[in-house]
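Researcher: Before we compare anything, I want clean individual predictions. No alignment, no superposition, just each chain on its own. First chain goes here; please echo the sequence and then give the structure tokens.
Model: Echoing the first chain and its structure:
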Amino acid sequence: MAGTWPSSQGARGVVFQRYSVFPHLTVRENIVAAEGFNTRSGWLFGAAKRAARDRADAMLVRIGLNHVAGQYPASLSGGMQQRLAIGQALTARPRVLLLDEPFGALDPGTRGQLHDFLTELRAETQMTVFMVSHDLEEAFKLGDRVLVFDKPRWDPQDPGLYGATVTYDFDARDGGMPHQHILDRYPSLAPASEPVPEPA
């Protein structure tokens, strides 16, 4: 991104740990609304709205909510509402997708289906995905690079005294090997106090 944050509408999609959908819209309308966000007025009309409804129905099939398309979020289970939030964020085809433990409330079967869905969509759109997860197995399954945060120092008298930092940096595509070899390609990333290894 050349050091700048994308400024265009639809550049970022966010799915929070706690599902966040519009309670006054039906399931289908929640998906359609995501496309409307990319227009100047925020609304779709006529042929554009009909086409968006067709795409929304296809998305609902993929996330397993087509049978409740006309219902409101309050009538859905927590897992179904989270699936709706994920579908809503992905409908806008963002360049960057931010996920805050999006699969934590889902049953194993649904979680596996959405893992596959997210992997397929990312390959199709080439979007960048940042995901927060407490499940390392999930992180290695879905990620290219896994950063592990932990507290290197702990004060029992004041647990909040020291913050977390990156303690491990793994290349998930390279058998989980540490990412230290990245310094060979980008020597400027090495700390000033450490000598940069010469390329072989």
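Researcher: Okay. Second chain, same rules.
Model: Second chain and its structure:
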Amino acid sequence: MISAMKKRISNNKGLTLIELIIVIAIIGILAVIGVTQFGGMTESARKEADKAVLAEVENAAKLYIATEEDALASGEVSSDHALVKDGYLESAPEIQAEANGGPDNTVTITVTDNDVTAAATGVVEGDGEGE
């Protein structure tokens, strides 16, 4: 009997249909797990990049206030803003996060008594993980 089983096992040259279906199901389950785990990472990275852009604008505005004699006006930071014209920013900042309307969303600064705050719709400073 044992020799018959060995002979039968050694004659199998491939996978049966059931074995193939099981392998495909396992690969499908792993793919679903991977997509759900990493699906939100792109938007999270965009929001973090937006926060970095706002910090860069605030730092450029503070440097402008510290070095220039002209007052810095509050308002939208566009390509014709003093921060861009005078070289404190290379170009007008762009917001990336889809929740904010995409790259055409504008950044505004508020200047009060030598303090500067940069803001954009949907970008919240201090957002914790697990958004």
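Researcher: What stands out in the second chain?
Model: The longest strand covers residues 108-112. Additionally, Residues 126-131 have pLDDT under 50 and may be disordered.
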